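Work Package 3 (structural annotation) set out to generate three-dimensional models for the target panel prioritized at the project kickoff. During this period the team completed the workflow that converts sequence records into discrete structure tokens, so that structures can be stored uniformly alongside our sequence database. As a representative example, we reproduce one entry of 291 residues exactly as it appears in the project archive.
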Amino acid sequence: MVAGLEREEGEKIMDMKGYYKDKVCIVTGGNSGIGFALSEELLRRSATVYMAGRNPSKLAAAAEVLKDHGERVRTIVVDVTKQEEVQQAIERTAAEAGRLDMLFNNAGIGGTIQFEKATLQDWRTIIDTNTWSVIYGVYAAVPIMLRQGSGHIVNTSSIAGIVPFPMQGLYALTKFGVTGLTECLRYEYAEKGIRFSTICPSNIATPIFKKSIDGTVHDQLAIPDDAYPADRAASDVLDRMAMGDGIIIVPEQPGTDFWKGYKAGNPEMEAFLMKMAHDRRESLETRGTYF
């Protein structure tokens, strides 16, 4: 066991809310979806939250919803696909607050599309948003946390970052990359006091289901009926982070079963993925959507 990764019995039962008290946190994509839910739950647990996003009006509206938390709600206007902006935002936040305890690299876009229908611009857009943004964030935050001797970096991947769902090759490339990077760094920096966690959401009730790679909103698409509430997902994630977990699948079921079945080469899981590929292609050809 690598030093720093052990979890003593007392740590397992630590006060989940206490882990976040007075912590300085940055949450990218903080004005909507999982990012907003994480921001709200962090505030409930007495953290100071810098909600980051590229749209000033949306950020302001999100912050207004959380105004009861007073000065612990802050906003940062930043385009996470631009390295200079990410670097400056993180460095300025750490300088203003005196430290940076947690960085949530959460901003991202979805992407369900057949490989042969994807353009090279689609590839560039999703890689810039889902992968390069995470690299930029980690690159800026690690030196700060090394100087502090502590910190926690949380990168949002996906269940599609550990299980290869069909028609999601573009998305899976970005999310498998995020999972792999985060797991490597979890071991690399354990002895330095920096924790890393990967969030792997399954179906969470957020607007991501209605958006295409280029950001177009499709009102005819629907959030799945079985989607897990974003606020519950955020609470689950923060509890698991406090316990020191690396890969955090939310909700745990059926995501954990998918992951275990895929890793084990389970024939039922193989058949499930084959059927999903068939059903999604058929749905596209008959209804014009993948679902």
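The radius of gyration is 19 Å.
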